[in-house]
Amino acid sequence: MSMISIRSLTKTFGTVIAVDNACIEIRANEFFAVLGPSGCGKTTLLRMLAGFEIPTHGQILIDNHDVSEMPPNLRPVNMVFQSYAVFPHMTVLDNVRYGLKVTGVAAKEARQRAEETLEMVQLSGFGSRKPEQLSGGQRQRVALARALVKRPKVLLLDEPMSALDAKLREQMQLELARLQEDVGITFVIVTHDQDEALSMADRIAVMNDGKVEQIATPEELYESPASRFVADFIGKVNLLDGHVVGAGTNTVTVDVAHLGQVSIPHQGHASGTVSLAVRPEKIRMDSHKPDSALRMNGRIVDWAYYGDSSHIFVQPEDGPRMSVTIQNETRTTIENADRGDHVWLSWQPGDTLILDR
Amino acid sequence: MRLMIRRFWKRSDPLDYANRLWMKLFIGTVFILLYAPVILMMIFSFNDSRRNIVWRGFTTKYYEKAWNNDGLIDAFVNSLTIAAFNTVLATLFGAMIGLLLWRFRFPFKSAYDGFMALPIVIPEICMGVAMLAFFSRIGWPSDLPWPLNLSSIMIAHIAFSFPFVAIVVRARMAGFNRELEEAARDLGASQWQTFRDVIFPYMRPGLIAGALLAFTLSLDDFVVTFFTSGPETVTFPVKVYSMVRFSVTPEVNAASTVLVLITLVAATFMLRFQRPQEAGGP
Known about the structure:
The complex is a heterodimer of chains A (about 350) and B (about 280).
Chain A: E1 2-13, E2 16-27, E3 31-35, H1 42-50, E4 57-62, E5 65-66, E6 77-80, H2 92-101, H3 107-120, H4 136-148, E7 154-158, H5 166-183, E8 186-191, H6 194-200, E9 203-208, E10 211-216, H7 218-223, H8 228-233, E11 238-248, E12 251-256, E13 260-265, E14 273-278, E15 284-286, E16 295-305, E17 309-316, E18 322-327, E19 342-346, E20 353-356
Parallel strand pairs in A: 3-8, 3-9, 6-7, 7-8
Antiparallel strand pairs in A: 1-2, 1-4, 4-5, 9-10, 11-12, 11-14, 12-13, 14-20, 15-19, 16-17, 16-19, 17-18
Chain B: H1 2-9, H2 21-44, H3 61-68, H4 70-103, H5 109-116, H6 118-121, H7 124-137, H8 151-173, H9 178-186, H10 191-219, H11 223-228, H12 236-246, H13 250-274
Helix pairs in contact in B: 2-13, 3-13, 4-8, 4-10, 4-12, 8-10, 9-10, 10-13
C-alpha cells in the first residue's frame, strides 16, 4: 500500500515548468530519495509534499487523504530544512517541543516526549543549550528531533547533508538509515548527491528538467539505467555510438564504429541509432591483446588517483576517450601504468547496456 | 623602552590607521568637539551666576528654580506625553509598513516605498509649514482639554517618525531566514502563532531600535512642533527656546541636563533589552 501517492503532479511558476506530470508511489516505511541536478524540480516537489507550494495540476495523497491544498500546519508530515531552521531564540528543548506546544499537547507530556527524542538523536543533556552553542551536525540533530517528536507519517529531508563536511556526512548517512529503521516512518529525502541517495535509499526517483526519468532501487539505477541521462548522472559511464543492424532472441547486434559488429544481450526493443554504455569499473585493462569481442587499444593519456582506486583515461586510435577505474589492490598497482603506455581495454557483453540516443 | 620604540616605528598597514598618532589626535579632537559642549552645559547648570558666563561658585538652586517653574514643568510633561504616544503609535505603524515592504509584493510597490520615505528627506521646515497649513485648512480644533489638545503635535510627530521605524524594521527583517517561518508552520503553528513565536522575536531588536528612534525624534523636535503648537501646547524644546530669547540662565542648563540624563537612561535601558542578539540561519 502506498503511503504517498503523487498523481500527475505539475507545478508551474509563470512560464517555467518546475515539476512536469510527476507520478510517484512511495510505500510505507520506505526510505525514498529524489535525486537530480540542481534546478530539476526536486525541491519544488518536496515543498508541495510539505504544503509550501500548491500544485498547479494533479494530486498528492498521503495515507489515502488528498492533501494537495491542505496548509502545511495540518499535514501529517514534518520536514528537516536545508538550513536546519533551528529557532535561534529558543533553547534546544524548546525547539524540540515547540511543535507539540502549538498543537496543544500537555506540557508534561511534551517535555517527556522531547527529552526521549533528544536521547534518540544522541543529544540528551543538550536541552538547555542555545543553537549558537551547537555545531552544524548537532543543529541538524535538533532539526531532526524537532520533526520526529511530532511522530509524523512522513519525514521530509531537504538536502540534509549539504552543510556537513565529508566525514560527518558519512556518519550522518549511516545514522539516518539506522534511525529510519528504528522509528518506522516513511522518509523522503531530496538530494543532488548520488552517493547519498545510493547508500541510504530503498528506492530512488531520478528527476531531470521537471520530469521523473526513472524510479528504481539503487542497484537497478546503476546497473540498468533507463536512459542516457540516468546512466550519465549516476556514476560514470563510457558511451559508444552505433546503430542496430539485427536482433535475435534476447540479443541485439550493433554496429559500432570502433568495435565492429557486436552482439549484446538485451531485453526489449531496440532499433536505429543507439549508445553502448559501459561503466569504467567493468572494463579490464591489459598490456596484451585480450580474448574478447569487445576490445580496443589505445594510449593512457591521463589519470586521477583516489587512494583506493585510480581513474585512468585511455585514448583509442580513433573514437571517444574511455575512462577505466582500477582498484589499487597492491601498493605498486599504480606504478605499473604510465602516461603514453599502450594498453588493451576489454569488457563482457553482459556488462554492456544499450540506451536510446 | 626598546619595545616602545619598535612599536612606534613599526610600519603599519594602510587599513591599520587607528594606530597612527595623527589619527589618535584626530579622534581625540572629534570626541572633545562632540562632548565638551554637553559637559560644559552640565557643569554650568551648577553655576551660581545669573548671567552664566563666568564661573562664580557651585549651587543647585537653579535645579530648584527649574523644578518650581510651572511653565517649564508643564512643557516637560507635554513633551513626555507626546513622545510616549508617538513611540507607541509610530512604532506600530512603522513596524506594520516595514513588515509589508519586507514580505509582500504588490503593484506600485517601489512607488509606495519612495513615498513612504518622503518624510525623511523633506526639509523639516517644509514639513512644519505643511502641517500648519493642513491643520488650519481642515479646522483641527485647538481648544480641546489636555491631553487631546496635543493631538495635532502628536499627529505631526507620528507622520515624520514612522518611516524611520519602518526602515529599521525592514532592514532587520531582511536578514530573516524564511525557512524559520516555514519550519514553524511545518511543526503545526498557525500563521498567528508563527508570527508570535518566530517572526516577532526576530523583529524585536529592530522594534526596540525603532521605538528608541521615534522617542528621541519626538522628544527633541523643535521645528515641526513650533509650527503645530499653540500657546497652550508648549513642549520642552519650544519652552527652552522662548526662555533663551530672554537670557541663558543656569535654569535652562539645569532643565537641559535633566533631559540629557533622561534620554541616556532610556537609551541604556533599551540597549540592555536589545543585547541578547541572536544569529539566524545555520
